[in-house]
Design goal:
With about 100 residues, the protein is α+β, with helices and mostly antiparallel strands. It is built from three helices and three strands; from the N terminus they run H-E-E-H-E-H. It has helices at about 5-20, 55-65, 80-95; strands at about 30-35, 40-45, 75. A three-stranded mixed sheet has the order 2-1-3. A hairpin with a 5-residue loop joins strand 1 and strand 2. The longest helix has 15 residues, at about 5-20.
Length: about 100
């Protein structure tokens, strides 16, 4: 299985344009993602995270599980909430 990174980044960058009317409370330069296996919690993260290898790994997992048709209507990341918070905390410290 190959990594289709350019296509994923292109799609992820289009998310704010596609859902700008449906995602209230998402500031410019950010994207809303839904995280969790059973219960989904909404997080708003900077678009700059989309280029980081750790976040790209999460996007790859989301693509494997959901493709580009996400059940929540937005980007859904299938990982534990605490793992996502840990990754984004590390990214926040790096930026």
């Amino acid at each position: 299985m190959g990594i289709r990174l350019p296509a994923m980044i292109h799609y992820a960058k289009q998310i704010p344009k596609l859902h700008s009317k449906n995602q209230s409370g998402v500031p410019k330069g950010h994207v809303a993602v839904y995280v969790g296996k059973l219960q989904k919690r909404r997080f708003v993260v900077p678009i700059s995270y989309l280029n980081h290898p750790s976040f790209i790994d999460l996007l790859n997992r989301a693509e494997e599980e959901f493709g580009f048709s996400h059940p929540m209507g937005g980007l859904t990341i299938p990982c534990r909430e605490d793992a996502f918070i840990n990754i984004t905390s590390q990214l926040n410290a790096a930026f």
